[in-house]
Amino acid sequence: MPTTAPPAAHALGDVTASDSTLRRFLHGLPGVDAVGLEARAASLGTRSIKTTAKAYAIDLAISMVDLTTLEGADTPGKVRALGAKAVRPDPTDRSAPATAAVCVYPDMVATAKEAVAGSGVKVASVATAFPAGRAALDVKLADVRDAVAAGADEIDMVIDRGAFLAGRYLKVYEEITAVKANCGAARLKVIFETGELSTYDNIRRASWLGMLAGADFIKTSTGKVAVNATPANTLLMLEAVRDFRAQTGVQIGVKPAGGIRTTKDAVKFLVLVNETAGEDWLDNHWFRFGASSLLNDLLMQRQKLATGRYSGPDYVTVD
To answer: Which of 122, 219, 268, 297 is catalytic?
Structure first.
């Protein structure tokens, strides 16, 4: 299976030699047919998933969840409870898989790490002045180093959307590479905030920019704006990672985040993965859902398949 590699190993490394070469490459990418993209995403969303396949899809989706709490009111107790839920999502059914990770602010990493110790559940930390990303680079890098020192397995950074939209692509590239250099062994997810990028062409350019800079994952959103993950923008990013691997041999993960709340939504996204990037991405090493409430619905639907009864919201813990 292809693995991630530093930018120097990429066959496309020469396109980042200067601001002009990077701009030429990004603006030379094929334009996005918005109507066609949205039509394909809508069409794939109508695929019918039967009972056996649905049970598999639900367990797969649970295993791909980055169970997230990113609120100013987060407390150690809340994070410990979240960690316990990530490790054993359904206390009444040990066959339910654990989630992929818990995602918290840097100051809660140590608490989360303790809560999931020995389980295999990863701890992801947002960083780089999340969610706006409006801070000096040294502040952002200190944020990353603090999270890694506390035990973060993964770092979710936000790009400087202002710089990107102003066409300062090399600045964004260099910031991502600097963050990557400070991640140590932690995997890096690069958040574009697709709802602020305005066009599909910009989302495609941001996807390639992030991958060229060494992202291990490209991620749609912070979950803090009006428009977050959609089938269309996720489809576009899946096309990007597929094409990037075809050109470089390097596989990059994708994480849609924000607004994915139901099992039906999650299954639609899994169909997008399978039909666009392929089976190699149907694994939580390469695909994640950034979510807080999605897990509850997945658990309720899982219980319904097992018993024939819909248990209702009291069946699951309240986040």
So the answer is: 219
Question: Is there a contact between 29 and 205 (Cβ–Cβ < 8 Å)?
Answer: yes
Alpha-carbon span 266 to 212, nearest angstrom = 28
The amino acid occupying position 289 is F
State mean pLDDT over 136-162.
97
Q: How confident is the model at residue 307 (pLDDT cuts 50, 70, 90)?
A: confident
Nearest CA to 264 among 57, 39, 41, 38?
A: 57
Decide if 219 is catalytic. Answer: yes
How far are the Cα atoms of 124, 152, 210 from residue 107, in angstroms, in the given order? Answer: 12, 11, 26
Beta bridge partners of 123: 102
Residue type, 77: G
Residue from 113, 140, 189, 255 carrying the catalytic annotation? 255
**Rounded distance, CA 161 to CA 194, Å?**
9
For residue 216, give the H/E element and its range.
none
* Assigned token pair, 268: 């639609």
Is 304 in the active site? no
CA–CA dist 194, 101 (Å, integer): 22
Catalytic annotation present for 140? no
pLDDT of residue 5: 46
- Distance between CA 319 and CA 316 in Å, rounded? 9
Which among 66, 90, 156, 216 is annotated as catalytic? 156
Rounded mean pLDDT, 265-280? 96
**Other CB atoms within 10 A of residue 191 CB:** 29
